[in-house]
Amino acid sequence: MADRLGVGLVGSGFMANFHVRSWTSVRHGDIMGIANPDVQSAEAMAKTVRQLKVGEPQVYADVREMVMDPKIDALWICTPNYTRVEIMEQIAEVIKDGKGTLKGIAVEKPLARTVGEAKRMLEIVEELGILHGYLENQVFAPSVVRGKHIIWARGAKVTGRPYLARCAEEHGGPHEPWFWSGKQQGGGVLNDMMCHSVEAARFLLSDPEQPKDALRPVSVNAEIATLKWSRPEYIELLKEMTHGKIDYGKTPAEDFARANINFQDEKGNLLVAEVTTSWSFVGPGLRLSFELMGPEYYMQSNSLEPDLNVFLSRNVKGEEGEDLVEKQFAEQGLMPVLPNEELVYGYIDEDKYMVDCFLEGKMPKETLHDGLLVVQMLMSAYKSSEEGKKLAFDTDSLDDFVPKVAQGTYTAQDPVKSAHK
Ligand SMILES: NC(=O)c1ccc[n+]([C@@H]2O[C@H](COP(=O)([O-])OP(=O)(O)OC[C@H]3O[C@@H](n4cnc5c(N)ncnc54)[C@H](O)[C@@H]3O)[C@@H](O)[C@H]2O)c1
Prior knowledge:
Blueprint: E1 5-10, H1 14-22, E2 29-35, H2 39-51, E3 58-60, H3 63-68, E4 74-77, H4 84-96, E5 104-108, H5 115-128, E6 131-135, H6 142-159, E7 164-170, H7 177-180, H8 182-185, H9 189-205, E8 216-225, H10 232-241, E9 256-264, E10 270-278, E11 287-294, E12 297-302, E13 309-312, E14 333-336, H11 341-344, H12 347-360, H13 368-387, E15 391-392, H14 404-407, H15 415-418
Parallel strand pairs: 1-2, 1-4, 2-3, 4-5, 5-6, 7-10
Antiparallel strand pairs: 7-11, 8-9, 8-15, 9-10, 11-12, 13-14
Helix pairs in contact: 4-5, 5-13, 9-13
The chain binds nicotinamide-adenine-dinucleotide (NAD).
């Protein structure tokens, strides 16, 4: 077995930089390449990689050249959702032509914009016969992992399995225009952030001693709405923030989504995942919350309740920044601070784990199969919301489904008018 994994990052934006900072805790891998047609951005990230001493990356304008480099053993795909399938096909082209080899490919969330695209992603890695990992950081977040362990080892063991998971992810809106575009991103906040919450809930509810597929989604009941960003003043603000690229007066996406996903376990027990997400939450910054409940116990975690708070008086007038917490909204008053976001959000343990799996030739526990199931749950949630009713989880009906938000035909609905009588 080789003792180090040479990793190539595809993309050099917000998420790739999070992986770079996490890499200071990754012991068996180095960042040896960065691919991005925007070479300047890749060069800037390469500089950070060298400063942090987490690799000696070469920059490539084309991902195909990076795959041909024998120093690269695995890829982390961290590009916008609308580039996924094309990039995967370019990677496959090189490997099929015998011009490069890879041990594994890890792909950021969500796996794709539609079930059709997600299936294509999975088909490609399976044809190549290489290892694959789905980068859902929240199932590696220490509070989630530790909380689940204690609940199952103590509470569930003595009094029975948990039955309700509540997970939420909320902030004030994404950092790049493409996230706000239903077509480019695949939807609004449901697609962008509920992918985390459904997988975290499934993870918490899953019996660690059973195979993963022992827990099956059976029905989905969801609702979406545009609560904040369809207001006239926020339509204008969003236009300004995105340099005129996004107009929610014409093609809005949802900034609020909630879903109840019912699961059944191997014994037929009913379990509920209650998930909610929004881009309309204005608080100190990004808030992740997790709860797991059973007959005689519960656990809870809220990322905005860290062990560090700072207070800055009204006389402290500083620049806007994200130095206290991701998607920070204020620089004054009593503020929660996450001293190590890479750890709290799960990126460090995720990266360490994926590197070790690929080095050991082992299929990770979080794969593109999980990524596909997540996309199926999300599409089912969009469908439920469009039809205004609870739906049986029927994967056959989802292959060609494209949410109205992604088609550009969604209108920010008045919940009273659209309610079924
Ligand atoms: N796990 C998480 O918590 C989390 C958080 C944020 C984003 N993400 C996901 O990561 C992905 C990237 O998001 P982001 O926030 O970094 O977006 P971003 O827009 O900040 O960065 C995207 C990067 O990809 C590059 N890029 C675009 N097209 C490319 C191509 N064809 N080849 C190579 N590079 C290309 C861009 O130049 C940019 O550097 C998205 O799928 C997003 O959903 C995950």
